[in-house]
Amino acid sequence: MAKSACGASPSCPPRRLPQAPVTDYDLGDDSYHNGAFILAANFGFYQSFVERKGDPARRLPPFQFKASDGYDFYLGMGGFGNANEKYFKNSNPYWLENICNTTYNDY
Is residue 41 assigned to a domain? Predict the structure, then answer.
């Protein structure tokens, strides 16, 4: 699908602009930003984006970083691989799918 832009005056002829659906996470993506995994954005998102269990859905409390700022938190985390063991406890399949499929593969 596309939407039109301009076209209201002769100086700006009508044109079509592509939409930006999330259809391919490794090609012009939202998770890896063309190869660069944005740790802070993804870590924060996947802390609260979890599988729904039971009805009604429960609201999770905000994640407690327990650090003076984000830099200290991620520095204390150590390597990127430590996030899953220390904080996600291997329990968030969405996080695991993102970190286990870092390249344009068959996934």
Answer: yes
What pTM value is reported for the model? 0.63
Note whether residue 102 is domain-resident: yes
Q: Are 2 and 17 in contact (CB under 8 A)?
A: yes
Q: 107 near 61, Cβ under 8 Å?
A: no
The pLDDT tens digits of the residues spanning 21-37 come to 555 555 655 677 767 78
pLDDT higher than 90, residue 57: no
71 falls within a domain: yes
